């Protein structure tokens, strides 16, 4: 960023935004905390498919971290998935928002205690709790009890969809096996399009190649695997240090990779004055944002840029 801003001096006089998608939202939050110490003042942070919650690492979506919180944050996505596939009980199948409201309330108020003390409960208490979790997720009480209330996303998809389930449903739980043939994807375009964007639109000239492994194949996050536990704290610190920083966050209801309730839970922990500078939108999509996301990002940039100009918040970096 320093090299880019130094080379393209006109950009120094413009509001600066950092955007991250999926697990890059963790890095984006860390960047927002680091760059002020490098003389770079951000106006906005755009986090798509935010991973600020307690998420699993991408290659292991069928193996959640061994923490109860990870299961709590996934439960409302179970409900959204069951609603889409019409697997909920009639009272919950009537209204999407009301179903999620009940799931979120149970996930926060009842589920943590249940997970912590499930080994101490008697038979009738276990059956009652299993029946309620089954009602909210579309699963059978038997499956809930068999998994001791800790059901993995892939197990949910298998139970709800049977032979029609596909591993791609972990990124968009609306998908069925029949959808795979209709959504072919050539991984080479991931790198090609990135190079076109960097070289064409951003005018970045570099001899170094841009590497982008498709769908996290051979992906090794190294020491950054634990960074998401610090991301929210870093974001909070960045917003305190930079009172003009505005944040836009989006998540999909049908995404198990970065569950929307993880973001909702994380942002609820921010102080009220910081939360007022965070704009969150939830889409009825999976991991991939919908087409209207582009327009929403444009509106966010325009609004924040106008605020920056009004405040005379022109970014400058001292020459070294």
List key phrases describing it.
single chain; elongated; 4 strands; alpha/beta; 2 domains; disordered C terminus; 320 residues; Rossmann fold
Number of helix segments?
Answer: 14
How many beta-strand runs?
4
Question: The biggest beta sheet, please?
Answer: 4 strands, parallel
The CATH homologous superfamily of the largest domain is termed Alpha/Beta hydrolase fold, catalytic domain
Give the DSSP E fraction (strand runs of 2 or more residues): 5-15%
Report the principal-axis shape.
elongated
Radius of gyration: 21 Å
Quote the distance from N terminus to C terminus.
14 Å
Class computed from helices, strands and strand pairing: alpha/beta
Order of helices and strands: HEHEHHHHHHHHHEHHEH
Examine the coordinates and then state which fold CATH places here, giving the name of the CATH topology of the largest domain: Rossmann fold
How many separate domains make up the residues? 2
Q: Can you tell me about this structure?
A:
The chain has 320 residues and is α/β, with parallel strands linked by helices. It has two domains: 143 residues, Rossmann fold, CATH 3.40.50.1820; 116 residues, no CATH class. 46% of the residues lie in helices and 7% in strands. The protein is built from 14 helices and four strands. The protein has a four-stranded parallel β-sheet, sandwiched between helices. Helix 2 links the parallel strand 1 and strand 2. Helix 2 packs parallel to helix 11, helix 3 runs antiparallel to helix 5 and helix 3 runs parallel beside helix 9. The longest helix has 19 residues. The chain is elongated and about 70 Å long. The two termini are 14 Å apart. 32% of the residues are buried. The C terminus is likely disordered.
